[in-house]
Amino acid sequence: MFQQEEYDVIVVGAGHAGCEAAAAAANMGSKVLLVTMNMNTIAQMSCNPAMGGVAKGQIVREVDALGGQSGIITDKTMIQFRMLNRSKGPAMWSPRAQSDRMRFAEEWRLTLEQTPNVDFWQEAVTGLVVENDTVVGVKTQLGIEFRGKSVVLTNGTFLNGLIHIGEKQFGGGRAAESKSTGITEQLKELGFEAGRMKTGTPPRVDGRSLDYSKMEEQSGDAEPSKFSYLDTPTLAKQRPCYITYTNPEVHEILKEGFEKSPMFQGRIKGLGPRYCPSVEDKINRFADKDRHQIFVEPEGWSTVEVYVNGFSSSLPEDVQYRALRKIAGFENSKMFRPGYAIEYDFFPPTQLHLTLETKRIKNLYFAGQINGTTGYEEAACQGLMAGINAHNRVHGKEPFILKRSEAYIGVLIDDLVNKGTDEPYRMFTSRAEHRILLRQDNADLRLTPLGHSLGLASDERMERVREKQEQTAEIVKLLKNFGIEPAEINGWLEEIGSATIHEKTRAVNLLRRPNVELPDLTRALPALTLALGQYRPDALEQAVILVKYEAYLEKEHQQAARVQELEDFTIRGRLDYRAMPALSHEAREKLLKIQPETLGQASRISGVSPADVSVLMVYLGR
Ligand code: FAD
């Protein structure tokens, strides 16, 4: 055996999924080997230099609350922070950071190097070592065999990756990086089904060649927040982004390249992300629109490179260049790197258990883009869950599965395993039926106790959660009891155009009014300011959300509890779907393929109708 005895967990690939998987398993006490093709591209952001955003920001908060690293690393390396959707209800608030691409990768590598129990090996893995339908190690290009009790595959866009720029195409996992071969072929031989997907990225340009005076500035929040619930830094200064637009002239030039477009000419076979289209796709599909928004995003503190968000393209590089130069502010722009599209293999995730272990090969886990998802956040959370479950498996512990009502992470994995995906899957708030409960402000309350009992979230995290819980409860009580006389408040209520009160009321009743926020109320009522002065800002925020939305939250908790009844009903191994003639043909096929654990899981499989669920319930004697 080379270099080391048997590892507990071997992680293949050091992208966003692989890094979280390695860190989680190692922090829980596993001996981990992280094998990656290129140690200089650990945690490389392949596309946009940003973390978070709508629904994705909630995921990063959840990863952090469980004891993952992505939130901490984002906080340490961001150049701008914005809380998106502040004007909407708190379920929609979504943290988003503009990252320093190079610093982000550097910080991840540093974090892993400082994590005891993580060994590194730079090389391409070309196959798995499988004995008796159980993975026992990996093989590399040099022919080295590393033995491991479990393996987590996180190959990203690298499996038989094919890069397209106009009519040119070449193998690669990402620009300037090799593709990975061998793994798909072996997995297919082992009986796995594989598919093909595609994604794309825009050109990067020289910031010194741009005229920002022709663009709108987009600054970060005046009081920037952050991702981690730990004591990470907030930004003292920020870099602005800019907004500009395409125009008909840009569109005309891009159209000249259509005949060389790998997408329009059918050379790209894989399905791409519908909600993240290339610029050529946008002008083709929305022909009536004469402009599309472009976000001009700096790539870091100390680089002039700029990311042209909204201009993803696989048209020939000269077409990209000429079209770019017709955009306001880009007239003299110089391109550093062209945009490109990439096709890669993925494995339909219906082949996985909810732990992300494959159904076919024991102790083998898949996480990230290999499962048909797209996005750093989606990858990171799967890596975390695969790392936790691989660790638990080899140490004889229980599987760790999050419910749909507990976390976006639970929604994501449940969707993947039960519904599969035929286009790159990204998270949206609309995918989470209990999104009112799954807010970015309470991920710590929801998940840190779970992460702590796993041995992943630190005592410090747990202590902070306990304190937040206690303070929140105290503040809620205080707001429910704090009396306000009409004379104290009516002047201010008139000022803001809110109905005056005629008798003494409680603070909570005013806070429930949509146009009354706590800072306003405390400004009008010095006694309330005094009473609340001792509490943490996050506890104050939590308490206000709880009282303002009490009725909605109550209803949602009841709904989740009702759904949970089906979730608690274990059916795996109890039913013979072949012997149920009343099931539809499609439902039988899907149930046999997916082998759901619970009645709840069965009810969410696409192709299993409510009528089929009723059939299952009859057989279960319910
Ligand atoms: P990756 O980040 O791809 O990491 C995979 C890692 O595995 C790499 O370190 C690689 O070196 C290593 N590796 C692969 N094979 C082997 C092997 N055989 N042996 C050893 N190491 C191996 N996401 C969005 O949300 N929006 C977008 O618009 C978007 N556009 C994209 C455009 C492009 C061109 C690319 C490449 C990606 C894009 N993404 C986009 C996707 C985003 O980059 C991924 O979702 C995310 O990085 C996936 O993380 P991952 O950990 O699964 O894989």
TrEMBL record:
Cofactor(s) for this UniProt protein: FAD
Pfam families per UniProt: GIDA, GIDA_C_1st, SAM_GIDA_C
Entry keyword annotation includes Flavoprotein: yes
Domain tRNA uridine 5-carboxymethylaminomethyl modification enzyme C-terminal subdomain: residue ranges: 547-618
Keywords, comma-separated and alphabetical: Cytoplasm, FAD, Flavoprotein, NAD, tRNA processing
Stored InterPro entries: FAD/NAD-bd_sf, GIDA_C_N, MnmG, MnmG-rel, MnmG-rel_CS, MnmG_C, MnmG_C_subdom, MnmG_C_subdom_sf
Primary location: cytoplasm
Entry GO CC: cytosol
UniProt-annotated location(s): Cytoplasm
Binding sites annotated in the UniProt record for FAD: 13-18, 125, 180, 369
Positions annotated to bind NAD(+): 272-286
GO MF, any single term: flavin adenine dinucleotide binding
Keyword Cytoplasm: yes
Biological process according to GO: tRNA methylation; tRNA wobble uridine modification
Function: NAD-binding protein involved in the addition of a carboxymethylaminomethyl (cmnm) group at the wobble position (U34) of certain tRNAs, forming tRNA-cmnm(5)s(2)U34.
SUBUNIT field: Homodimer. Heterotetramer of two MnmE and two MnmG subunits.
Family from the record: Belongs to the MnmG family.
Record protein name field: tRNA uridine 5-carboxymethylaminomethyl modification enzyme MnmG
Species this chain originates from: Hymenobacter fodinae
